[in-house]
Amino acid sequence: MTKSPVEILNDPFLNKGTAFTAKERQSLGLVGLLPPYIQTLDEQAAQTYAQVESKTTSLEKRIFLMEIFNENRVLFYKLFSQHVVEFMPIVYDPTIADTIENYSELYVQSQNATFLSIDDPDSMKESLKNAADGRDIRLIVVTDAEGILGIGDWGTNGVDISVGKLMVYTAAAGIDPSQVMPVVLDTGTNNQDLLKDPMYLGNRHERVTGDRYYKFVDQFVKTAEDLFPKLYLHFEDFGRDNAANILNTYKDQITTFNDDIQGTGIIVLAGILGALNVSKQKMTDQVYLSFGAGTAGAGITKRIYDEFLQQGLSEEEARKHFYMVDKQGLLFDDDKTLTPEQKPFARSRSEFANADELTSLEAAVKAIHPTILVGTSTQPDTFTESIVKEMSAHTERPIIFPLSNPTKLAEAKAEDLIKWSDGKALVATGIPADDVEYNGVTYQIGQANNALVYPGLGLGVIASTAKVLNDEMISKAAHSLGGIVDGDKAGAAVLPPVSKLDQFSYTVAKAVAQSAVDQKLNKEPISDVDKAIKDMKWEPKY
Ligand SMILES: NC(=O)c1ccc[n+]([C@@H]2O[C@H](COP(=O)([O-])OP(=O)(O)OC[C@H]3O[C@@H](n4cnc5c(N)ncnc54)[C@H](O)[C@@H]3O)[C@@H](O)[C@H]2O)c1
Ligand SMILES: O=C(O)C[C@H](O)C(=O)O
Ligand SMILES: [Mn+2]
C-alpha cells in the first residue's frame, strides 16, 4: 500500500523531514511540503540538539525529544546515539518516572504503543495488528504497570516504561526501531489518585486479579506469539505477586525475559564480580544480604546464589551465605507470608540468640555481618551511616549497592557511602551518579541498572534465533562484562561506564548468542555468531 505524501510526513518510520532529497520530494509528492534547503542528518541532529539544550529541565528536554521520536525515528536515534550519557537519564530513568506520573496530563501522542484493555479482550488481535501496521515485530516490551520502578501502580500511564525500555534497546544495541512494539496491559489500577483523577486515560476500576487476570495475560502471550513468530517477549514492572509466576509459566516455552528478575540479576552479578576484581576477594567467601526481597531482590539473590553453586558450593553450603530483610525484618522460615521466591533464603530462628529482635536492617546487619548489601526496597535513605560503619567494621571492602529507583527512592547516595566507609565501600547505584572526590581519590560509580545489560542480551537472543533464554545464557551475559574496567586503578568503578554502552552491549550479545548456539538452541542455522549480530544491527542513517 503506497502512502500519500502527508501520510509519509506523519509516519516516524518513513519521515526524513528536511532531509528528503530533491529526487525523493519529486517521486513521493512532497514538493512544496517542506522548506527548500535540504539538510543532512548531521545538520538536523545539530539543530535539534541546540533546541534540547535550550530547555532548562530534564522533563522539558524529554518532552521535546519525544516530539522528535514521534516524528522521525532516525533523527531521534542519531541524536540519542551522539549523546548517550547525557540523554539516558532524560529519555529513561529517572526522568521517565515523572512522565509516567503525569502521563495523562502530558499526553499528546500514543508513540506507536499498543493499549490492551482487560475489558475488551476480543479486540486484542486486531489491536496488535493495527499497531504493527504490517511491520515485522521481533521485540515487545510489555508491562501491566503494577510495580513501575519503585513508584508503584500507574495503570495505563505505565506504557511509558515500555516505550522507554525500547528506546534504550535501539540506542544501546541497535535493535531496529521498526521491529519493536511497546505494550501496556490495562487490567485496572489500585492507585486511588488515578481512579479519582478526571484526566486519567486508563480503565477506571480496580485491578482485575486471579483467573481472569492470568487468562488475559495468556491470551496476550498466545496472540502475540501467533502474530509475530520471531518474537522476543520482555516483561517489565509487573507486581510482586505476578512477575515470577508469569516468568515461570513461559520461560521454557517461548523466548521470553523478565527484566526486573533476570536483567537486574545479571547486572548485579556483573557488579559484584567487578567489585571482587577490585578487592581481590573470593565470591564464595561473601555474605549476602538482600534488603527488599521483592521481584528484583529475590531475582538478584537467586542469580548470585546460582553463581555460588557454579563455583562449586553445595546448595546447603551456598544457602548459608544468604539473608533477606523485607518489611518485617530478617526473613524466617516460620513466616506464613513468605513468597515462593523468598522461602529458600529464609533462616531458622534457632540460628540467632536474639531472633525476635531482628526486625530492622540495622539489627540484621549487626547480627549477620554481611559483606554485600543490595537495596531493592523502595525505601529511601535506609542505608544509614551507622549501618555502613557497622559493615565496614567487619569487612575490608564492603560491597554496597543501593538500587531503588528513581532517585528519590535510593537507599543511599554514593557520596555518603564512600564517605561513611572512609573510601572502602565498593558502590554501584541504580541511577547515574557523579564521581565522588574523597581524600584525593576520584571514585567512579558504576550504574547497576538492568539497562546496561538487557539491550545486549536481547540482541544476542534475537540474532541467534534462540528458542528460549536459559540460565546458562544469563550467566554468560553476566560474566562477559568482566575485564572492561581496570580494577587496579584507585577509585575504579565496579561496572563499565554508560559511555561504552554500545560496545559492551555488543560484548553481551556475543556471549549470549554464542551460548545459544553452543547449546543448539538456535531455530535457524548460524555459522558465524559475530556476523549474525552485525547483520541485525540497525544504525540511524537515511
Ligand atoms: N537498578 C535496577 O536495575 C533495578 C531493577 C529492578 C528494580 N529496581 C528497583 O528496586 C525496587 C524494588 O523493585 P521491585 O520490582 O523488586 O518491587 P517489589 O515491590 O517487587 O519489591 C519491593 C520489596 O521491598 C519490600 N519493602 C517495602 N518496604 C520495605 C521496608 N521498609 N523494608 C524492607 N523492605 C521493604 C516490599 O515488601 C517488597 O518485597 C524499585 O525501587 C525498583 O526501581 C532497580
Ligand atoms: O527501569 C529501571 O531503571 C530499572 C528497573 O527495571 C526498575 O524497575 O527500576
Ligand atoms: Mn523495571
Average pLDDT, all residues: 97
DSSP summary: helix tally: 23
Rg calculated over all Cα atoms: 24 Å
Ligand inventory reads:
nicotinamide-adenine-dinucleotide, (2S)-2-hydroxybutanedioic acid, manganese (II) ion
The best one-word shape is globular
Distance between the termini: 21 Å
Low-confidence stretches: none
Number of strands: 14
Could you tell me the strand content as a percent range? 5-15%
Strand order of the largest sheet: 8-7-6-9-10-11-14
Oligomeric composition of the shown chains: single chain
Structural class estimated from helices and strands: alpha/beta
Q: Helix proportion of residues, in percent?
A: 40-55%
What is the makeup of the main sheet?
Answer: 7 strands, mixed
Organism: Pediococcus inopinatus
Domain Malic enzyme N-terminal: 69-251
Protein name: NAD-dependent malic enzyme
Domain Malic enzyme NAD-binding: 261-517
Keywords:
542 residues; alpha/beta; seven-stranded mixed β-sheet; five-stranded parallel β-sheet; 44% helix; binds nicotinamide-adenine-dinucleotide; binds (2S)-2-hydroxybutanedioic acid; binds manganese (II) ion; NAD
